[in-house]
Amino acid sequence: MSFFRPPTSGAIKIVRPDPAHDQPPTQTPAKNPARKDSVQRQCRNIMIYGSCKYQDKGCLYYHPPARRSARRNSYFASNLAALNNAPVFVPKFPARIQSQSPAPTPPPPQESPPPPQYPQEPPYEEYMDYDEASSNGYYPDPNAYDAYDHYMTMPVGPVFLRQPLNYHLYSTPMPPSFLANSVDTHFMLPSGDLRTLMQTRSEDLHMAATPGLGLPEEMQGYHSIIPLDNLNSERRKFGNWSSTVYRAINSKDGATYCLRRVENFRMNNQGAFSAIETWSKLRHPGIVSVQEAFTTHAFGDSSLVVAYAYHPLAKTLYETHLKPSGHGRTSLPERTLWSYIVQLATAVKYVHDAGQALRMVDASKILVTGKHRLRVSSCGIVDVLMHDSVQMHTQQDMHALQQEDLTMFGRLVFALCSGQALGWSGGNFQKTIELMGRVYSPEVKAVALFLINKGAPHKNINQVMDIISTRVAAEMADALTATDILENELMSELENARLVRLLCKLGFINERPEFARDERWSETGDRYIIKLFRDHVFHQVDEMGNPNVNLGHVLASLNKLDVGTEEKLMLTARDEQSCLVVNYRQVKACVESAFDELARPPNAATGGYR
Ligand SMILES: Nc1ncnc2c1ncn2[C@@H]1O[C@H](COP(=O)(O)OP(=O)(O)OP(=O)(O)O)[C@@H](O)[C@H]1O
């Protein structure tokens, strides 16, 4: 009979009954005097089945005179909760296996076990944790228990119990009803759409460069340069300069950046980059962060390149709302309009409070980077381009530029209300004012007029904030709701990350072909338990021998392993000759120690591990 007891786990092995042991254990008390108190303990067969077939054949335990069915039912009723938490045990000797593999040689008739007293009874497999058993004084000799085994009948078919997943580390997402508008909130897409969006963003980040575009292979530490503009269309203008936007990967940090290149730029004064230095320190959710700037001849000309944070799948505000589509113009919903106004106002306030000016508040330079999320892009570039012509000498100069920011902001509000980029100019102005009065609440017109009012030379962003203050509250509530939803989404991702780490560890350990010259490393010691655990999780079969691909069972088992619960489970050897009763805490300890052993640096003296 095979025998195994892991030195570290404290699990107790249960062996398949040997026919020799199926005889009533008449010799056992003499062999093991420590069990003298057994007569005080009620026989488990009585508790489970209401009767014991060995009652008159030497069974040591107490057999009270009781009606079988009544006792048995009461046992099951009282232990229902325990049974629900019992580990699922799936025996591996179903019909298919029997038909495919040669049947084991039946024991000689005289040695076969006596027929079960109650043929309808489910199998009785006694198992007991080693700690519990030894603390009760039942097994002073760890090798003596096998004489104790009662006859085990094999189950007719497996019973799959639902595994509750309510462990303290298993995240329970907030009920949707607690999250205001969780289906479709102002800033958040419904969960499924959000995941699709994340996936497409990830694909965008991994998109390979199209060959044959004549772009530099490498430039100032950036590689994999891909144009975001259509290079064949008319070259876009940035003020008086032609500009092109690229996506590139920085070899220093491996991150993706957006590079805005201004063609044919001649740098006369290195001091022009001081503005970039200032901008690279400004961080705000309404601004595309500035990384660095440099000049290069890599494109065949003298170009200025400013590197910004890259926002996958970002579109400009112009592309999103103002580009003529041929389907007529649709008015922006008022909630969206206010959200844009509030976001832009907070970005402008941050920049003005930092003593800077945006200098470019234009629909073609504002990015929509998520649902209703705006970020002002291209910051700092005008400062470099205009460095020689507009020198910042006084506070008044900056104030004038900030006033200009507010005017551009006002024009943008007119453009968004009218659905036309030039909705603020010439003959469009009056039409837009009328449309505003018809479609939007009076505050929209009030703030737009305030922003473009040239007769108020001392207007500032704080006054704008006062005008829109009532709208800021709604924006704040929506933004906080978005963080709640995202936290909730993150909880489930956290689970995934934990389980993937666990699976990686199991993968490293299980069936490792060689380790430190010990070919059986993954088959012995703690690793043997891990191997049996892997079988328990992934290799269960149903009563017909078909693979049981119950993902719920896998997730439940891995979550319990991750947590290391005290719940016990029975692991069965592949030859079904032995079982181990362990709890998840013990399996977790085995995984940790086996992985630590693998991860330990090699021993220089031996050239191997350990
Ligand atoms: N930081 C960024 N992250 C991701 N995409 C960006 C970023 N900046 C710009 N883009 C994208 O690059 C493309 C080109 O940007 P660009 O600013 O040139 O817009 P445009 O509409 O072509 O304006 P212009 O007419 O002034 O060139 C746009 O689709 C824009 O969404």
UniProtKB/TrEMBL annotation:
<feature type="region of interest" description="Disordered">
    <location>
        <begin position="1"/>
        <end position="39"/>
    </location>
</feature>
<dbReference type="GO" id="GO:0000932">
    <property type="term" value="C:P-body"/>
</dbReference>
<keyword id="KW-0963">Cytoplasm</keyword>
<feature type="region of interest" description="Disordered">
    <location>
        <begin position="97"/>
        <end position="124"/>
    </location>
</feature>
<comment type="similarity">
    <text>Belongs to the protein kinase superfamily. PAN3 family.</text>
</comment>
<dbReference type="GO" id="GO:0005524">
    <property type="term" value="F:ATP binding"/>
</dbReference>
<dbReference type="Pfam" id="PF18101">
    <property type="entry name" value="Pan3_CK"/>
</dbReference>
<keyword id="KW-0863">Zinc-finger</keyword>
<feature type="domain" description="Protein kinase">
    <location>
        <begin position="231"/>
        <end position="491"/>
    </location>
</feature>
<keyword id="KW-0479">Metal-binding</keyword>
<feature type="compositionally biased region" description="Pro residues">
    <location>
        <begin position="103"/>
        <end position="122"/>
    </location>
</feature>
<keyword id="KW-0547">Nucleotide-binding</keyword>
<keyword id="KW-0175">Coiled coil</keyword>
<dbReference type="InterPro" id="IPR041332">
    <property type="entry name" value="Pan3_CK"/>
</dbReference>
<dbReference type="GO" id="GO:0004672">
    <property type="term" value="F:protein kinase activity"/>
</dbReference>
<keyword id="KW-0862">Zinc</keyword>
<dbReference type="InterPro" id="IPR000719">
    <property type="entry name" value="Prot_kinase_dom"/>
</dbReference>
<feature type="binding site">
    <location>
        <begin position="364"/>
        <end position="365"/>
    </location>
    <ligand>
        <name>ATP</name>
    </ligand>
</feature>
<keyword id="KW-0067">ATP-binding</keyword>
<dbReference type="Pfam" id="PF25586">
    <property type="entry name" value="zf-CCCH_PAN3"/>
</dbReference>
<dbReference type="GO" id="GO:0006397">
    <property type="term" value="P:mRNA processing"/>
</dbReference>
<comment type="subunit">
    <text>Homodimer. Forms a heterotrimer with a catalytic subunit PAN2 to form the poly(A)-nuclease (PAN) deadenylation complex. Interacts (via PAM-2 motif) with poly(A)-binding protein PAB1 (via PABC domain), conferring substrate specificity of the enzyme complex.</text>
</comment>
<comment type="function">
    <text>Regulatory subunit of the poly(A)-nuclease (PAN) deadenylation complex, one of two cytoplasmic mRNA deadenylases involved in mRNA turnover. PAN specifically shortens poly(A) tails of RNA and the activity is stimulated by poly(A)-binding protein PAB1. PAN deadenylation is followed by rapid degradation of the shortened mRNA tails by the CCR4-NOT complex. Deadenylated mRNAs are then degraded by two alternative mechanisms, namely exosome-mediated 3'-5' exonucleolytic degradation, or deadenlyation-dependent mRNA decaping and subsequent 5'-3' exonucleolytic degradation by XRN1.</text>
</comment>
<feature type="coiled-coil region">
    <location>
        <begin position="470"/>
        <end position="508"/>
    </location>
</feature>
<feature type="binding site">
    <location>
        <position position="260"/>
    </location>
    <ligand>
        <name>ATP</name>
    </ligand>
</feature>
<dbReference type="InterPro" id="IPR011009">
    <property type="entry name" value="Kinase-like_dom_sf"/>
</dbReference>
<protein>
    <recommendedName>
        <fullName>PAN2-PAN3 deadenylation complex subunit PAN3</fullName>
    </recommendedName>
</protein>
<feature type="region of interest" description="Knob domain">
    <location>
        <begin position="509"/>
        <end position="610"/>
    </location>
</feature>
<dbReference type="InterPro" id="IPR000571">
    <property type="entry name" value="Znf_CCCH"/>
</dbReference>
<feature type="domain" description="C3H1-type">
    <location>
        <begin position="37"/>
        <end position="66"/>
    </location>
</feature>
<dbReference type="Pfam" id="PF00069">
    <property type="entry name" value="Pkinase"/>
</dbReference>
<dbReference type="GO" id="GO:0000289">
    <property type="term" value="P:nuclear-transcribed mRNA poly(A) tail shortening"/>
</dbReference>
<dbReference type="GO" id="GO:0031251">
    <property type="term" value="C:PAN complex"/>
</dbReference>
<dbReference type="GO" id="GO:0008270">
    <property type="term" value="F:zinc ion binding"/>
</dbReference>
<keyword id="KW-0507">mRNA processing</keyword>
<feature type="zinc finger region" description="C3H1-type">
    <location>
        <begin position="37"/>
        <end position="66"/>
    </location>
</feature>
<dbReference type="GO" id="GO:0008143">
    <property type="term" value="F:poly(A) binding"/>
</dbReference>
<dbReference type="InterPro" id="IPR030844">
    <property type="entry name" value="PAN3"/>
</dbReference>
